[in-house]
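Q: what sequence does this backbone want?
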């Protein structure tokens, strides 16, 4: 594993729409492992592929309850509303209040390409949506 450089605000890469991840091979596993190491080293709760310069649809989240890897995630449903502080490893030292759904259900693939669904609420829902936004070039400051 290796710590990767986190792309910072102002870089065009963060504004691009990412493409579907088609292969579930050793290369993907290496990138996902590196992203986890990078996220933990930076003490973040999530990291998306474009933040390490890769324009593909995958991201990771860990709010302290274990690592979640989402490849090609799609929002299935959302309900409720929450307001809370958000930050981003690509925008260091800045935080803002963002309104998000309280609960979300997301369908995604794991690193082996197997499809699964996850339902999450509160901080975990917020983190998942924040990272999924990155895959479409959207930053939390756009929603603040
Ligand atoms: Co972010």
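A:
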């Amino acid at each position: 594993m290796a710590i990767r450089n986190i792309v910072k605000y102002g870089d065009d890469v963060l504004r691009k729409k990412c493409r579907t991840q088609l292969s579930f091979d050793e290369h993907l596993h290496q990138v996902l492992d590196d992203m986890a190491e990078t996220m933990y080293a930076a003490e973040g709760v999530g990291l998306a592929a474009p933040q390490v310069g890769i324009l593909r649809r995958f991201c990771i989240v860990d709010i302290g309850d274990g690592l979640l890897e989402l490849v090609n995630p799609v929002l299935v449903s959302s309900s409720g509303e929450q307001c809370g502080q958000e930050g981003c490893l690509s925008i260091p030292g800045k935080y803002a209040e963002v309104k998000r759904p309280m609960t979300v259900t997301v369908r995604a693939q794991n690193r082996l390409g197997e499809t699964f669904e996850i339902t999450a609420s509160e901080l975990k829902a917020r983190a998942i949506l924040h990272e999924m936004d990155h895959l479409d070039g959207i930053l939390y400051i756009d929603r603040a």
